[in-house]
Design a protein that fits this description.
The chain is 37% helix and 17% strand. A seven-stranded parallel beta sheet has the order 3-4-2-5-6-1-7, with helices on both faces. A seven-stranded parallel beta sheet has the order 10-11-9-12-13-8-14, sandwiched between helices. The protein contains 14 helices and 14 strands. The termini are far apart. The protein has two domains: 205 residues, P-loop containing nucleotide triphosphate hydrolases (Rossmann fold, 3-Layer(aba) Sandwich); 153 residues, Rossmann fold (3-Layer(aba) Sandwich), CATH 3.40.50.300. It is of the alpha/beta class. α12 links the parallel β10 and β11.
Length: 398
C-alpha cells in the first residue's frame, strides 16, 4: 500500500503519486503535508534533494480539489529561475495527472503570447518567476485577487538574486487571508524578516542541519594549478565510475571551453548558462535528464533546483567563491538518500575559498590527491595513475 495514504491526500493524488513511481514519503513530506492540509502557514527549511517540491505541491493540489475551479488563479508559486519554474510545473502535472486542475508556468526568455492565452483560458495554478509575473500584472493579463495559497520556493536564492523587493510588491497584490508557504535551504536574517512580515504564526519544518551538506555526498578536493585543471578533469572522467556528471564553471566562457574540449575527446556533453536561449536551455536539461548527454557543464544558474536523477558526480572545476554556492552545487548529487561524490578543483589562488567552506561546514574535506605540503604549492595530476576502474561515462562511439 502506498504510504502517502497516511498523510490524508485524496485518491486522485495517490493515483498520480503511484503513476510517478513513489511509495514512501520523505521526512519533509511527512512533516509538511499534514500542516499544509490543515491550512497553516509553513516555513520549510531543508537541504536540496529532500523532496520539498512534493511537500508543497501535493497539499496545494489537495486544497484546490476541495472547491471548483474559477476564472482566476487560486494558487501562486514563485521561483527564482525559469528552470525551476518549469520543473515545479512538471511536478504539478505529474502529481495532478488524474485531476482537472490546470496550471501554467510564466517566465522570461520566451514569448508572452502563449502565456497570455493560457491565462485567458483560465488556470488554477500559476508558477512564475518574479520579473515576468510583474510584467503580466502591470499589463493587466492576470490578477491575484483569488489567490488562496502563495508559495515562495528557494527564498534564499531569490534574496541572492535581488528579488525580495519584487516579492513584496507581488505579495501586496494577494489577499491577506491567503495561506503562505516559504521554502528555503538556508534562513539568513532578510528571509526571517520577510517571513515575519508576510506570514501568520507559521509552523516550521527543518530537515537536517543548514550548515552541513547532505551526508550522502562524499566530498573531496584536488589541489591543482589552474593551467592543469582540464588535464585533471579528463583524468577523473577516465578513472572514476560515473553515471551523469555535472561540472560547474565560474564563467560562461570557461563553461563553453570545457564543453568543447570534452566533445573533442568524444564525450556527449551539453552546456547550461544564461547566454543560452530558453529553448537551448530546455533542450540541454531535457537531453541531460534523458541520458542523451552524459555530462552537463554549467554555471551557477544550475546550482539551485536542478532535479536530475542519477547524477553520480558533481565536479567543481572552479572552487565556488561563496559557501552557499558550494552547498547547493554539491546538493545536485546524493539526492533522495542515494550516494554521490563531489570533487572540487582548488588552484592556489582559490585556497581561501576552500578555507571558508571548511570553516562554515566544520569539516576538513578529504584530499583526493593531497599535496606533500599544502602550504607551499598545489600538486598536479598524479604522474602514476591509479588502477583503471570500470566506468559508465564513456566517450561516444564515432
Amino acid at each position: 500500500m502506498n504510504q502517502f495514504h497516511s498523510l490524508g491526500l485524496p485518491q486522485a493524488l495517490i493515483q498520480g503519486i503511484d503513476r510517478a513511481g513513489y511509495q514512501i514519503p520523505t521526512p519533509i513530506q511527512t512533516q509538511a503535508i499534514p500542516s499544509v492540509l490543515k491550512g497553516e502557514d509553513l516555513i520549510g527549511c531543508a537541504q536540496t534533494g529532500t523532496g520539498k517540491t512534493a511537500a508543497f505541491v501535493l497539499p496545494l493540489l489537495a486544497r484546490l480539489l476541495e472547491t471548483p475551479s474559477g476564472s482566476s488563479p487560486r494558487a501562486l508559486l514563485i521561483t527564482p529561475t525559469r528552470e525551476l519554474a518549469q520543473q515545479v510545473e512538471d511536478a504539478i502535472k505529474q502529481y495532478g495527472y488524474f485531476t482537472p486542475l490546470r496550471s501554467v508556468a510564466i517566465y522570461g526568455g520566451t514569448r508572452m503570447q502563449p502565456q497570455i492565452k493560457a491565462l485567458r483560458r483560465g488556470v488554477d495554478i500559476v508558477v512564475a518567476t518574479p520579473g515576468r509575473l510583474l510584467d503580466h500584472l502591470n499589463r493587466g493579463n492576470l490578477t491575484l485577487d483569488a489567490i488562496e495559497v502563495l508559495v515562495l520556493d528557494e527564498a534564499d536564492r531569490m534574496l541572492d538574486m535581488g528579488f525580495i523587493p519584487d516579492i513584496r510588491k507581488i505579495v501586496a497584490k494577494t489577499p491577506r487571508n491567503r495561506q503562505t508557504l516559504l521554502f528555503s535551504a538556508t534562513m539568513p536574517p532578510p528571509i526571517h524578516r520577510l517571513a515575519k512580515s508576510i506570514m501568520r504564526q507559521p509552523a516550521k519544518v527543518e530537515i537536517g542541519h543548514q550548515q552541513k551538506p547532505t551526508d550522502t555526498v562524499k566530498q573531496q578536493v584536488c589541489f591543482i594549478p589552474q593551467a592543469y585543471k582540464m588535464d585533471l578533469l579528463l583524468h577523473v572522467l577516465e578513472t572514476e565510475t560515473t553515471e551523469n556528471v555535472l561540472i560547474f564553471s565560474r564563467t560562461k566562457h570557461r563553461a563553453n571551453r570545457i564543453q568543447r574540449k570534452l566533445e573533442q575527446k568524444g564525450y556527449k556533453t551539453t552546456v547550461l548558462h544564461s547566454d543560452r536561449t530558453q529553448n537551448q536551455r530546455q533542450r540541454a536539461l531535457d537531453g541531460f535528464k534523458r541520458g542523451k548527454f552524459q555530462i552537463m557543464v554549467a554555471t551557477d544558474i544550475a546550482a539551485r533546483g536542478l532535479d536530475v536523477e542519477n547524477i553520480s558526480h558533481v565536479i567543481n572545476f572552479d572552487t565556488p567563491e561563496q559557501v552557499d554556492a558550494y552547498i547547493h552545487r554539491i546538493g545536485r548529487t546524493g539526492r533522495a538518500q542515494t550516494s554521490g561524490e563531489a570533487i572540487t578543483f582548488v588552484a592556489n589562488e582559490e585556497r581561501k575559498f576552500l578555507q571558508q567552506i571548511e570553516r562554515f561546514t566544520g569539516k576538513r574535506l578529504y584530499r583526493k590527491y593531497p599535496a606533500n605540503n599544502e602550504t607551499s604549492s598545489p600538486v598536479e595530476t598524479p604522474t602514476t595513475k591509479p588502477a583503471r576502474r570500470r566506468r559508465r561515462t564513456t566517450p561516444a562511439n564515432n
